[in-house]
Design brief:
globular, nuclease, Rossmann fold, exonuclease activity, seven-stranded mixed beta sheet, Metallo-beta-lactamase, Chain A, about 300 residues, alpha/beta, 2 domains, 9 helices, six-stranded mixed beta sheet, MBL, Exonuclease
Length: about 300
């Protein structure tokens, strides 16, 4: 087991044994990308290793700068970079999201990227494997954090008859919310911001049925004063701060984002504390490395039973 298998550099997490980076934050020669969110997938890399949907989203967002050479793999399809054997497992986060399984000298390292255990009809469910080292995100690694049932959260919208301005992240959250509204609040009409609409179409092209939605039209929402839900990205949501005749809600797992809105909607696409503990139990690692958050709570929780290192 190599304690320096992954090291933090200015370019991002680096594996010297395969000469590649994971979710690099600056352009590099070889990068393995877990999923297409902007804090994990950056433009202008030379060789990009990822799933097909991740490439599709990167091309949609970055156009010709998405990457010079893409190497595309399905879940479980093995490939080698240097001496490291790599394969992708579904992370259950967004479309195409992947955990990255790496095997070197008979030791298995599992990098989770962003992941969740909750059911989500707009991406493949999470899957696990046993690993010697688990490298997990810790976005919500706090014993006080428990994500509620998203279906019960969406049910709150049924009691709101006014038009709703619903803040969402454009990739993953917007599509999940659209599908949930269609399933749980069928009387609602979903209108989609112009920056989100192409991603909805990409999901549909990949075979995910989001239900009914339409491109936002200012005249339409003025003419229909009830049961319209306008999905907008964060910047647009903030710009509507003084808008009248709209109930303002933001879908997020973060408590601070809920403050000042007309209703709270706790829907997260990340794993919560109990989910991380469940993941560790299933993966059964000898060591846990943490990143993308605060690993101090995990380090304290496992202080007598499992080595936890904060990257």
């Amino acid at each position: 087991m190599e304690d320096d298998f992954l090291i933090k550099t200015p370019q991002g997490l680096y594996c010297k044994y395969g000469d590649f980076y994971i979710d690099a934050i600056l352009p590099v020669n070889n990068v393995v990308i877990s999923h297409a969110h902007g804090d994990h997938a950056r433009p202008n890399n030379h060789h990009v290793f990822c799933t097909c949907p991740t490439k599709e989203i990167m091309v949609l967002r970055f156009k010709k700068n998405a990457g010079k050479h893409f190497h595309l793999y399905n879940y479980h399809q093995e490939f080698k970079i240097g001496e490291v054997l790599i394969s992708f497992l579904s992370a259950g986060h967004i479309i195409g999201s992947a955990m990255i399984k790496m095997v070197y000298k008979n030791v298995t390292y599992l990098y989770t990227g962003d992941y969740k255990l909750q059911e989500d009809a707009t991406c493949q469910p999470i899957e696990f494997c046993k690993a010697d080292v688990l490298i997990t995100e810790t976005t919500f690694a706090n014993p006080e954090t428990k994500h509620p049932d998203p279906a019960k959260e969406i049910e709150k919208l049924n009691s709101i008859h006014q038009n709703i301005l619903l803040g969402v992240y454009g990739l993953g959250k917007a599509q999940r919310i659209t599908q949930l509204i269609n399933k749980i609040c069928p009387q609602k009409n979903v209108l989609v911001h112009y920056s989100i609409y192409p991603i909805h179409q990409l999901y549909q092209k990949q075979g995910y049925d989001l239900g009914k939605y339409q491109f936002y039209d200012r005249k339409w929402i003025k003419q229909h004063q009830t049961n319209q839900v306008y999905l907008v990205p964060p910047l647009t949501f903030n710009a509507y701060g003084k808008a009248i005749n709209l109930v303002k809600i933001f879908a997020s797992g973060w408590d601070n984002i809920q403050k000042g809105n007309d209703e709270k909607l706790y829907i997260s696409d990340h794993v919560d504390w109990e989910g991380i503990l469940q993941t560790i139990k299933i993966v059964s690692p000898k060591k846990v490395w943490t990143l993308h958050g605060d690993g101090k709570n995990l380090k304290h929780y496992f202080s007598d039973s499992l080595e936890v290192k904060i990257l």
